[in-house]
Structure formats: structure tokens, C-alpha cells
Amino acid sequence: MTQAIITIGCILVYFAINAVIIRLLGKKQESLEEFGVGNRSFGWLLNAFAYIGGWYTGTIYTGWFSNASTIGVFAQYVIIYSVSSLFVMFFMARPVWVLGKVYGLETQGDLIELRYGSKVFKFVFALLTFLFWSPWLILEIKSIGYVVYAATYSSVSFNLGLIVVSAFVIAYCFLGGARASAVGGLVQGITFTIVGILAVYWLIVRVYGGLGDMYDTVEEINAGLLTLGALGGKYWASVVITCTLGGYVLPGVFATIYRADSSRAVKKSVLLAPIAGILIGFTILSLGLGLTRFPDFPADPQSSAFWIAGKFGGPVMVGLMGILALAACMSTISAVLNTASVLIAKDLVGFFGPGITREKLFKYARTLTIVVGIVAILIATQNIPNLMFISLIMYDCTVQSFPAVFVGLFWRRANLPGVSLGFIVGCVFSLVGNFFPATIAWAGGWSGGMVGVAVNMVIIIVCAFACKPYHRVDELFSTIRSYKEIRSKKLI
After folding, report:
1. What is the mean pLDDT of the chain?
2. What is the largest CA-CA distance in the chain?
3. Packing angle, helices 304-343 and 263-288, rounded to 10
4. Do residues 312 and 207 make contact, with C-beta atoms less than 8 angstroms apart?
5. Domain 2-388: which topology?
């Protein structure tokens, strides 16, 4: 019981720090633009840690950590795609930010409607991308249950921990909107980057003697952990590519770009994030690689990060590991909640009520923060096996959004028939390939998502040359080319 009191105390202190800083740096929310995109006022440092906090998830301390222990380096695909997606975002930053600023865009669906001129396609695109993205919210809330249960030595039940922590995040998202989410991401991102990297590396030294010794140990106990295993290189490459491209077109990425006070702020933040991403992912997943050599390795690998922290660092280290994991979970949940509430209000509810005022949409978005949060909590309390598989399916479907966005930003000839047909066909290939893999055995090991995005691109290209180009998009490309930004040195 004493151990649990120590870890619970550590976590409560951290929650108090979060609450105080979010309150001090927060602002009263008075409009939809302020609630959804923070009045486009975030400096590069706030934007960087808001992005890092929203991108690097708490599942890396539970699901991915357990995968590193059981399937080895295959799990490290998360490091490669996370960093690669950020470089893709670097090149997308200026056109997306400029169009957002000039045309008042607040969601990914707004960009789709502006580029292709169809409210119906905007609705379908927004609905499907939200459904494909929403599992992250469930996974992160579920991860909170694992974290609290493990970090408190089973003193706090899975569901109780899940509900209490999630309610805290929902509350500050409801009250503070995008800025509260970003400030929370700043606090939480600094925690699991700077503090987390140092703490986990200390554990690597205690457990193995150092990184070099760790690889020697893994090679001795199970050299297969250092290979891609039975899944094969093509499947691994498919995962990396679909996650890289799919990661860029998640709705939250566009909200992050819109919130910055300039496209330069976005680019600065993107340059910082890969460094943090490599260090975060590599250290925590490396720690997990050789843990199966211990005879008391837990039956549930989801809790193995906390087990090894307690074994070599005692309750204080378990409490710290709990803080790191909760920080990553909370920052992701807040980012998804804020973006999802605005997306549903504007792109889905707004579709059925085109006369709804922005004041009402603002109220809907705030209310939806609570509604979406409660629904996600209820789903997360259910038994959901194989979280890694769910996330891979999500990316296989999400990547089908990439051609419509990427091609639309850089190629004038891309048109509505091509992107809409390509998007739907690509999604079908993704779902069929994941649930009925035998149907794409002819692909030679490539995933359904890769097959889908290839077909998607072909359809867009064929339709682009089969139809006349849209002259209406000339104005958009001219706007991007000629827009003059004011150089900003703002941090937060």
C-alpha cells in the first residue's frame, strides 16, 4: 500500500502542475475560431510541443512497448513513420497555412470544399476520415486505464483511472479549447521528451549496462527480435509508407497548421519534432527489446514498462513512468477531442443546417467535446483486443485521403470525379485487404492500404487528363504563390 501511495502522490502532483499552468496561460473562449484554431496566434514553441504532445501517444508505453518485447524491432516502424510524416508536413505547411489564413479555414474538410467545390464530398470525406481517426481516441483513453492500474500497483481500478483522468482532459478542453489543449501539450510534451528520455535511458543503463550491451543481450536470448520476423519486409515497408502518408492527412495535423501565427512557425516546429520523436521512440522501445529474458516477465506485456521500472527503480520510478505515459495520453486525447468537436460541428452538423450561425456552431463544438469524450470513455471500458492491428487498419484507410489532399495542393488538374472515386475505391481495397487478406495475395506481401493508395492515385491521374482542368482553382494557386507573410519571432 505504501508503494501505491507514493505513485498516486506523484501523479496527483503532476496533475496539479498541469491544472495551474493551463489556467495561467489559458484564455476565455468566445468564438469558434478561437476555440478551434486559437485565433491563428500560436508561436513556434507552443506549436511544436502542441504537435509533439498530440502526435506521440501514450500507447508507446503500453501497446508498442509490449510489442517491442514480443515481436522486436518491427515495432520501431512507429519511429520511422512519425519522423517521415513530419518532413511531409514541412512541405505542406505553407500552402495549407496560407489558404487557412486567407479563406478562414478551420478544418480539413474546409480545405477539401475550397479545393474541389463540393459540400457533399466534404461531408463524406470528413465523416470517413473522422471514423478512421477516432480509434486513436479510444486507444489513448484505454491506455490511461492500463497506465493508472499498473502505476498504482492495482490500487486504482482500470475503469476508475480511465474515467477520472479522461474527465480531467475533457474539462480543460471544454473550458479552454485549442489553447488549453496546446498549453497542456506544452507541459506534457516537455515532460515525456526531456524528463522521459533521461529517465528511460537511465533504466536502459540499469537493466542492460548501455545500448551496446542491450543489443548483445537481445542477440543472445532471441536474435529473431532484431529482424522483421514472419511478417516480412514488404509488409513492414507497407506499414511505414501508409503510416507516413496517412499520418500527414489526419484531421489534427491541419488544425495544428492553422493554429500557427505563420507558416514559418509551423516549419520551425516541424524541425524540432523529429529530433524529439527519434529520441522518445528509440529509447522506450529499446528498453523493451530484451525484457523477455527475465523469468518474472509479466503475463500481460501491456504493463511491462511499469514492471521493469519498479524492478530497477522502485515506486518513485514507477510513479515517474506513470506520469510520462499519462502525459503522452492526455496530450493526444486533448488534441483529438478539440479537433473532433469542431470537425463534427462544422463539417457534419453544419452540412444538414447550412443556415446555422457561427455562434451556434461554437456552442455545438463545446458541447460535442463532452459528448465525444463520454462516448469514447464508454467504448474504451469495453474489451478491445489487438490494439496494434486496429491502429494499422486505421492508417491503411486514412492514407486514402493523402492523394486528394497532396495532389490537390500541388497539381491544378486534380478534379472532383478523380479524388472522390479514388478515395472510395482506395478505402474498399484497404478494408478488404485487412479483413480478407487472401483477396490481395497477388500483391506479393504489400498491404491492402498500399494497393488501395496506388489504385487511388491511378484513378486521380486518369480522371485529371480525361476531364478539363478547373479554372476556378487558379485563384487558389495564385494566392499561395503571392501571399506575403509577416515574419514572427513569437514563442507561445
Report:
1. 88
2. 73
3. 150
4. yes
5. Sodium/glucose cotransporter (1.20.1730)
